[in-house]
Amino acid sequence: MFPRMKAPNFTHENAADMARRATISRLERIKREKEEAQRAAREAAPIADDARKNRTLKQLDLLDGLIDDALAAKDADKFLKLSAAKERLWKLVSPTAGVLRPGKRGAGAAVRPSVQPT
To answer: Which region, left, alpha or beta, applies to residue 32 given φ > 0 means left and ψ of -120 to 50 means alpha?
Structure first.
């Protein structure tokens, strides 16, 4: 903890000065804590979608070069692995819309009302 310090004599004459110093100290502490919290939030923030997309596009460009090298070397196994990796990366860049799965009754089944007419 902190070493004990002898408090200065608190008198009516120095009360205003001590209050100012305490206020300045408190405001600086609040500012420091706020800056630390903002820094921690920035470090913990996820990568923006645009940055992630740009990074993935760069990886796709690198894969294109590797695929060309595999084609030039006529290495079919390497070509297939790189093409599969490129396909997975491309899905990250431009996802396709999903299809809703039909329920147990199927898409064409009639829906019964929850209340029977009287």
So the answer is: alpha
Q: Which residues of the chain are under the pLDDT cut of 50?
A: none
The confidence score (pLDDT) of residue 33 equals 96
Instruction: Give the tokens for residue 87.
Output: 């396909």
C-alpha closest to that of 73 among 85, 84, 82: 82
| Domain residue extents for the chain | 15-45, 49-93
8 Å CB contact between 67 and 79: yes
Q: What is the distance between the alpha carbons of residues 67 and 59, in angstroms, rounded to a whole number?
A: 12
pTM: 0.43
Nearest one of 65, 62, 51 to 93, comparing CA atoms: 51
* Burial status of residue 82 (CB atoms within 10 A of its CB: 0-12, 13-18, 19 or more): buried
Residue 32 tokens, joined: 């420091």
Number of residues written out for the chain:
118
Is the CA virtual torsion 78, 80, 85, 87 positive or negative?
positive
